[in-house]
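task queued by scheduler; priority normal; single chain, no ligands, no partner chains; default sampling; output format set to C-alpha cells
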Amino acid sequence: MDVVNLTQLGADAHTVLNHVEGYAYPNETNILWSVLIVIYPYITGLVAGAFIMASLVRVFNVSALAPIYRLALLTALAFLICAPLPLLLHLGHPERCLQVMMTPHLSSPMAMFGFVYAWYMMAVLLLELWLEYRHDFVRWGRSEAGLKGLFYRMLTMGANDISPRALAFDERMSIGVTIIGIPSAFLLHGYVGFIFGSIKANPWWGNVLMPVIFIFSAIVSGIALCVVIYNELSWLRRKDTCDDCLDAMGKFLFYALLLDFSVEGLDWLHRLYSADESIHVLKQLAAGKLFYTMLVGQLFLGTLIPLLSLGATQLMGGQIPSFIRRRIYYFSAVLILAGVLLMRWNVVIGGQLFSKSLRGFTTFKLELAGQEGWLVGLGLLILPFLILTLFVRLFLPRDHETPAHGGGNGDIHPATLAQARTGADQVSSVAGN
C-alpha cells in the first residue's frame, strides 16, 4: 500500500507541475474563484448600466432615449433576478446564504451585498417599475379577460386611481426613486470592485481605482446591452428602430467607453510609473497567459475597435447613412459586451494565476461540466434573456400598442396620462416602434 500511495502521490505531483511555471507553493495551484465569480460582477454591472440608461430619460430628460426607457428597466430587473445565482451556485451549501441575512455582520462585504441587493430590488427597481406601469396595469386589467386580466389587476395592488392628479403624483415619486437609484446602482456594483481592491496581498487587485474601473465598465456594458436588445427586439418584431434613439445611445456609449478606457489606461500608467516589485510579473502575465484575453480581446476587439467605430459616427454622423450607423452601433455594442466579460475574466482569473512570491504562474483550465463548468456559466448568461423575453411579452406586448406618433418615436399614453406627463415621458417604450 505504501508503494501504491507513493506512486499516486508522484503522479499527482507530476500533474500539478505540468500546470506550474517558475516557483509556486502547492496551495497556489488551486483557482478558488472560477467562472461563476467572473459572471457575477458581469451580471451586476449590466444591471447598474441598464438602470443608468433609464435614468437618463427620467432624471436628465434626454427625450431621444424615451423609446428605450421601459425596456432598460425591464432589462435591469431580469438581470437583477439572476445576479445572486452565481454566488449561490458557487457555495457548497446555497441554503446557508440565509445566515447572512439572519445574523448580519456589517464588516463583511459579502454580507452587505444581501442588504444592498434587497434595497435595490425592493426599494428602487420594483418601485420605479410599478410607478411607471400602474396606469397600464389598471387599463390592461380592465381590457384583458381571464387569468391575464387577473394578473394585471393584482399588480395594481388596489391603486386604481388614474386621474391626472394621481398620475402626476406617480411621476414625481418615480423621479425621486430614480434619483435615489443612481447612487444605489453605483453602490450595487462598486462594492464588487471594493472587494477586489481591498485585497492588499494581491498586486493585481489591491488598487484604489478598482471600484471606479468596475463602475465605468458597468455603465459601458449596460448601455451596450440596451443597444443590442433594442435592435434585436425591433428586428424580431419587424419594426423600424428610432434613429434619434440609436444616435443618442451611440453617443452615450462612446463617451462612457472613452471614460472607461481613460481610467483603465490611467491605472496601467500608474502601475508602470510606480514600478514596484510586482510590475514585472504583471507584465509577464499580460504578455503571456492573458495575451489573447487582455491585449487581443479586451483591449483591441473590445475597446479600440468600438472606440474608433463609435468615434467615426460622432465625427461624421451626418455623412454616414442611417442603416450603416445602425450596424456600427450594434456590432460595436456586441464587441463591448464581449470585452467587458473578458475584463472580468482577466481580473478574477488573472489575479489568481501568479504566485504570492511573484516568481511563478499556474494554469487555469475551464471544465465542461460540473459546478464550476462553462455549461453552468453559459446557462447563467442565457437565463436573464429568457426572463426578459417573458417580461417583454407581459409588459411590452404588441396587442397593447397604440398608434405611433412623431415618426415612430414611441407610443403616447392615453389622454389622462398625457395631461400629467410632458415631453419624453409621454413616449412609452420600444414596443411601439
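post-processing summary
- The longest strand covers residues 20-22.
- The mean pLDDT is 82.
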